[in-house]
Amino acid sequence: MADSEFLFNMDHGYLEGLCRGFRSGILTQGDYLNLVQCETLEDLKLHLQSTDYGTFLQNEPSPLQVATIDDKLREKLVIEFQHLRNHSLAPLSQFLDYITYMIDNIILLITGTLHQRAISELLPKCHPLGSFEQMASISIASTPAELYNAVLVDTPLAPFFVECISEQDMDEMNIEIIRNTLYKAYLESFYNFCQNIGGATAEVMGQILSFEADRRCFIITINSFGTELSKDDRAKLYPRCGQLYPDGLVKLAKADDYDQVQNVAQYYGEYRNIFDNVGNGPSEKTLEDRFFEHEVKLNVLAFQQQFHFGVFYSWLKLKEQESRNVVWIAECIAQRNRGKIDNYVPIF
Amino acid sequence: MWADLGIGLAISLSVVGAAWGIFATGSSIVGGGVKAPRIKTKNLVSIIFCEAVAIYGIIMAIVLSNNIAPYDPMAAKNILRQNYFGGYSIFAAGLTVGLSNLACGICVGIVGSGAALADAQNASLFVKVLIVEIFGSAIGLFGVIIGIIQVSKSAMGNKI
């Protein structure tokens, strides 16, 4: 009963209303048309002032850089997210914690520590949404063994580490493999968490997360062609919470080239559509772009239902996509190469 | 005893329904009102619909309590029968009104929450969702009507 529509509003009604308010501030197609017509970054700033972003670039010295725009966009997003997180109650607060970016931050810190970089260099590069208090303790470790203990004991990601990586692995494994293994454990754990909440949250998030899992499977497979990643190792990195489990994953593990991957995708309705019409020419979209489009479509659909947590996840993902779009347009303008400026993914 | 129980149920279940509806709608109005302040005043109509449910409960409780009268337990069989009937029918009417107002309050609350959020996105939707709310509010009215019919035949006291 709790967290279905009867009692949802008791704990989470205000935050859902607030999140939907944020969602209505996401840039529309009309805004993007205005932005692509800008000649300089100052024009871009002017156009952004009339949207929900307001005067967030006001105090930046000119000339404006794309990196500054990127930072400021992210900062605004983080402030809004922190506001939601601070006002939330369980289980929404746990849900919001799941969405944050700790894995990438930890991998960044681990890599930096293993290469003996100073912590002051690394901390600003971490994504602010994923920071947590024990981040500093990771950098104190100097050997992989210490690192493993530090991470295992102190960070909130400890349960994911325990499941997949032992101490020797830290030493030998490629950092990318660690990242992917962690991500797989995280995704499956998140999926189970949503299913336990039940109701509309389980339905909406189940769809989104299973697409995410399948997308990672495809991308891992395609990226591993030509590297020395063995097929068994590759199969260990596939998250199992998507539609591809179990048959598709078995086939993907055996795939040797892109055509075989495409054959696997033919069995599943939505993925067949994504793999069609993919190319690298000027008017065709890449596979990554098609995946982004599908993700945006699923996220927009999440707003059609009320009384579930999916709206928070979808809002965050859509805002990130919007940031990517704005930065892409800003880069095209700054480099005066307007050929691919229309390659942003429209949201509304 | 039954009659008093009925009156208690009428007012208490109605109030629970109204309160449920008000918190469901109110939190959505407040949340939506942060980014779309124009919805604040119009959406108070939803709250008023929920409140009406509690008012139905009070009115029925007063009407029902007017039917109660003391009687002599040693009286003749037909007077006793009439008083028992009166007690049971007041209980039934109270239960009817209470439960239907509970459902009505929850329904109007959830619809009102949807109305507030839809209004925040697109102002033309408010009137359309309000129509749904009006139908939901009719449920409470049905309960009151049936309750009144149920007690219309009851009479307590020492005379037939």
**Ends apart, CA distance between termini of chain A:** 33 Å
Total count of strands of chain A: 0
Low-confidence stretches of chain B: none
H/E series of chain B, N to C?
HHHHH
Strand content of chain A: under 5%
Major β-sheet profile of chain B: none
- CA gyration radius of chain B, whole angstroms: 20 Å
The number of helical runs of chain A is 19
Keyphrases for this structure?
heterodimer; A: 348 residues; mainly alpha; 19 helices; 0% strand; B: 160 residues; 5 helices; 83% helix; rod-shaped
Strand and helix map with partners:
The complex is a heterodimer of chains A (348) and B (160).
Chain A: H1 8-23, H2 29-36, H3 41-49, H4 66-86, H5 92-99, H6 102-114, H7 119-122, H8 135-140, H9 144-154, H10 158-164, H11 167-172, H12 175-197, H13 199-224, H14 231-236, H15 247-254, H16 258-266, H17 269-275, H18 287-302, H19 310-334
Helix pairs in contact in A: 1-19, 4-19, 6-12, 9-10, 10-12, 12-13, 13-18, 18-19
Chain B: H1 2-35, H2 39-42, H3 44-65, H4 77-121, H5 125-152
Helix pairs in contact in B: 1-3, 1-4, 3-4, 3-5, 4-5
Folded structure, characterized:
The complex is a heterodimer of chains A (348) and B (160). Helix content of chain A is 66%, strand content 0%. Chain A is built from 19 helices and no strands. Chain A has helices spanning 8-23, 29-36, 41-49, 66-86, 92-99, 102-114, 119-122, 135-140, 144-154, 158-164, 167-172, 175-197, 199-224, 231-236, 247-254, 258-266, 269-275, 287-302, 310-334. The model of chain A has no long low-confidence stretch (mean pLDDT 80). The radius of gyration of chain B is 20 Å and the shape is rod-shaped. In chain B, helix 1 (2-35) runs parallel beside helix 4 (77-121) and helix 3 (44-65) runs antiparallel to helix 4 (77-121). With 160 residues, chain B is mainly alpha-helical. The two termini of chain B are 20 Å apart. Chain B has helices at residues 2-35, 39-42, 44-65, 77-121, 125-152. Chains A and B meet through helix 1 of A and helix 1 and helix 4 of B.
